[in-house]
Design brief:
97 residues; 31% helix
Length: 97
């Protein structure tokens, strides 16, 4: 094998090792993250009112409809709210300021 062939082989080996190291790091980072799903992670998120809250109604959170109860009076359709807490399947919300 000529000198240029050894040089090219060395570069290819280093490139493959770099690719494997990058993919491994991405896999490790993915598995080390905590899952961000479920009602436990709704607190602090924004929602949009789809049925007037007087004080109870319905809001949409990331495409899902939830029963909600306003802690800040009547809130009209289309207004944005902040989720304060989750009680069973009902969200306690207040107007977004």
């Amino acid at each position: 094998m000529s000198a240029s062939a050894w040089w090219l082989t060395g570069i290819l080996i280093l490139a493959v090792i770099g690719l494997i190291a990058t993919v491994t790091a991405l896999i490790i980072r993915t598995y080390s993250r905590q899952a961000a799903t479920g009602k436990e992670n709704l607190k602090g998120r924004e929602a949009v009112v789809v049925e007037t809250l007087k004080p109870q109604g319905t809001v949409a959170v990331e495409g899902e409809l939830w029963n909600a109860e306003s802690e800040s009076g009547t809130i009209e359709v289309g207004q944005e709210v902040i989720i304060l807490k989750v009680k069973g399947l009902t969200l306690s919300v207040s107007k977004k300021t």
